[in-house]
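Many introductory courses stop at the sequence. We go one step further.
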Amino acid sequence: MVMISRTTAPAASVANPVLRVPPAAPAAAAAYFGASLAFHADVSDVASALAAADDPGFVVVDSRSTASWDQGHIPGAVHLPTALIPEQAARLLDPAVPVVTYCWGPGCNGATRAALALAELGYQVKEMLSGFEYWAREGFAFETWEGGERRAADPLTAPADDADCGC
């Protein structure tokens, strides 16, 4: 019996859609994922940094509409809808302080558009992955036009018995 290692099988014989295009070389993967972390922050890391210090070293920008902001936003965030960034960013943001943008959730690229607009103005910027949806789903406090709110963490997005997901 001949054993074929999964890592040595010819690419042409791989019918698996995941491996139809082979993984990148380790050095290319390290460069890509390292760059990704320079551009993105996740909800838990943002929440942890905000909770740990009076000055986390960055400002959070909610790039959504006023109606969306009123429905719920991260405490302490700056409300700066994407369309208003060119005319209002200099008045609301210190160019020396990195910015973390967010919008609704993973199905929305509003935070990406806001991050682009801010980067084009010279700001250091990261995008918060998964947006306000996952902020609320992970059980972090938020503010609405009626006051503060907090929901139970969704066990599909946050650990049920621990504040640390182990990532």
